[in-house]
Amino acid sequence: MTESQPPIESLTESEAAAELALLAQEIAHHDAAYHAHDAPEITDAEYDALRRRNAAIEARFPALIRPDSPSARIGGAPESGFAKIRHRVPMLSLDNAFDAAEFAEFCTRAKRFLGRTEPLVFVAEPKIDGLSISLTYEHGRFVRGATRGDGAEGEDVTDNLRTMKSVPDQLHGDAPALIEIRGEVFMTKADFLTLNQSQAEAGAKVFANPRNAAAGSLRQLDVRITAGRPLSLFAYAQGDSSEPVAASHWEYLEWLKARGFEVNPLSRRLGNEADAEAFHQEIGLQRASLAYDIDGVVYKIDDLTLQRRLGFVGRAPRWAIAWKFPAEQATTILRDIRIQVGRTGALTPVAELEPVNVGGVLVARATLHNEDEIARKDIRAGDTVVLQRAGDVIPQIVSVVTERRPEGSEPYRFPDLCPACGSHAVRPPGEVVRRCTGGLICPAQRVERLIHFVSRPAFDIDGLGDKTIQEFYDEGWLHGPADVFRLPEREAEIATREGWGKLSARNLSRAIAARRTIPLERFIFALGIRRIGATNARLLARHYGSYANWLEQMLAARQIGSNERLALGSIIGIGPAIAEELVDFFGEPRNVETLKELAAELTIEDAQQANAADSPIAGKTVVFTGTLETMTRPEAKARAESLGAKVTDSVSKKTDIVVVGADAGSKARKAAELGVRTMTEAEWRELVG
Ligand code: IVH
Q: Is the C or the N end of the chain the one with fewer CB within 10 Å?
């Protein structure tokens, strides 16, 4: 990004215009990712860098400032789904300072603007990483609440805000006829971790950081969801007011507290710039141990008369600044790259680190995302790496210090065998994640697969709930799916378990026995092969008809370029990506073993051939000969079979139809001799549609 770009002094006017156009686009994209989707793609520091570059180019080429310039815009436009509320006074943003010099510059500018030499009195508040909201009170009653949105107009989240304890419904004591009170809604780090844990358990969205969790929790169309989320609020600013309530910002904070709001208890009034600077350091030391994420300290000139005189420039006030903390970084040694296998079989690389203190938190592990990320950054075992915790709770590896790379180190080779079970781990084209193919036998996935195996649309075994599966698994009774059918042998033992009795154990045995006969499509679905849901399982079952035929064809389809492989990929509704998953599944010998073991326990019922009843070729025996022009031979065969026909290679009296392609030879002659019906490719297409 900006590091690799030319210095602003050397930009020509047309280069500057082009870059401003790009920056407008890029910043708008990141605004939407952050504000509308609660899913930022870059760090705050990277985002700030983009904005600074934009502002710097605009400062040098003011004539090139675009109507859609990011400096005139704040955040993202509101998402649909919520009614819009126009703020009576716009909700603005803050300019940033990144070091003491920039903070001093801000002070100098303000003093110059005011024509003052005496020190400035500030109120300093930790800058919480949450989302800002505006609360409107009429005669002390809470009537409306909105998100910031684009600064002028936000989303109506009144009902959501009403669910929060820290939003008073009625202000204590006297209140003006109308006042807009602003503050930050946030989630503590502990609440964020607990929420994510329960989200993960429920298979629901997991949030990247507390800020996204707070925004995602507040902006819920169903307010009951918001009510169940641990949201907090610190009040810190004022919008419109029908009459003044304070003469200074400090007094305003006191007023807020007396009216029932929480104000950040770390807020301080500081009498001069030196104290302000010292305070930044003090908060910096406390940062890691605070209950919530902060990314800087906000300084506001205390005197409201001075604030009014200073006013605004662009999107930010001249009387306040956010002095950001540097992203928390540290270097350490990466001892090893370990591969974790998730419950769905995804292989995730994790960096095992020499434990290091990053901004007050001891870090021993960092996520490496996926194999491409490792390759892109060329991360190797033994490397010295730069770690960063930027607001996010999960630390990241920013870069490798290649000068410190040990001699003889080799690029990391991502395993193609699952470390949990040794099965092949494959990465379908176009996907970033490599997955273990040993779903049924992989200890990392077994419980999940077993739960799927007995679930309602699969084997549908009453009395085998998720918890029971886990318990029996822990007991060592369930290694693979075939073990389900051996549970009745343990009936007496099961009856003595807590929560069980003779009757319930017997019922379980009966439920299992009742499922020893199963339709082919349910059987295929129960295997939990990736992308083979109920619909695809039905397609396969109907196409292949019997378990024996399916197995035989799938084993043959493992061969690249085999007719069976081509036929599989050309089944209507299946396609090459799904065919690939099946081939991967059957490519793992232990899956085939598991299948055979299972089949030995079961009676798998044949499927009805698709459309057999009403297809014109149902039950007919068809031979294709010669070169077909509009379809491949396997495709033609698959289509015929899916319509209930049997396709054979040689012509006999039993043959019903011979489809004659170009340059057909002996088979066409034999058909004529035997009086078998022949047709051209075009006639065939007409017939089967
Ligand atoms: S005052 C006109 N005070 O920072 C000034 N903002 O970059 C309005 N923030 O949108 C903001 N803590 O989301 C203010 N103590 C604080 C803050 C704070 C966090 C956030 C807020 C705002 C953003 C500005």
A: C
Parallel, antiparallel or unpaired: strands 294-301 and 122-128: antiparallel
- Strand ranges, E, within 187-341: 232-241, 268-270, 294-301, 312-313, 316-317, 320-324, 328-341
Q: What is the pLDDT of residue 198?
A: 84
Q: How many Å apart are CA 435 and CA 626, to the nearest integer?
A: 42
Task: Retrieve residue 113's tokens.
Answer: 């603007």
Give CA separation, 689 vs 118, 538, 543, 586, 600, in Å: 89, 21, 17, 32, 40
Q: Is the CB of 92 under 6 A from ligand 1?
A: yes
How many whole angstroms from 132 Cα to the centroid of ligand 1? 7
d(CA 209, CA 392) in angstroms, rounded, equals 5
Q: Are 502 and 553 in contact (CB under 8 A)?
A: no
Q: Which atom of ligand 1 is nearest to the CA of 92?
A: 2
Cβ–ligand 1 distance for 185 under 6 Å, the answer: no
Tens digits of residue pLDDT in 611-650: 556 778 888 899 999 988 887 777 788 778 777 788 898 9
Cα angle 178, 182, 187 (rounded to 5 degrees) comes to: 140
- With a 6 Å cutoff on the Cβ, whether 215 touches ligand 1 is no
Supply the pLDDT for residue 641.
78
Identify whether 127 is a catalytic site residue: yes
Which atom in ligand 1 lies closest to the alpha carbon of residue 126? 15
Distances (CA, A) of 350 to 162, 340, 380: 41, 7, 12
Tell me how far CA of residue 369 lies from CA of 47, 347, 349, in angstroms: 21, 10, 6
Rounded CA-CA distance 527/443 in Å is: 15
What is the Å distance from ligand 1's center to 83 Cα? 23
Ligand 1 pocket member 319 (CB < 6 A)? no
Q: Which atom of ligand 1 is nearest to the CA of 93?
A: 24
Q: From ligand 1's centre to the CA of 103, what distance in Å?
A: 16
Do strands 316-317 and 141-147 pair parallel, antiparallel, or not at all (unpaired)? unpaired
- Dmax (CA) for the chain in angstroms is 114
Please report which confidence band the pLDDT of residue 70 belongs to, taking 50, 70 and 90 as the band edges: confident
Tell me, in angstroms, the distance from the centre of ligand 1 to residue 196's CA. 26
600/598 Cα distance (integer angstroms) = 5
Distance CA 30, CA 76 (A): 9
Compute the distance from residue 133 Cα to the ligand 1 centre, in Å.
10
CB of 358 shorter than 6 A to ligand 1: no
- Report whether pLDDT(390) > 70: no
Residue 195 CA to residue 210 CA, distance in Å, equals: 10
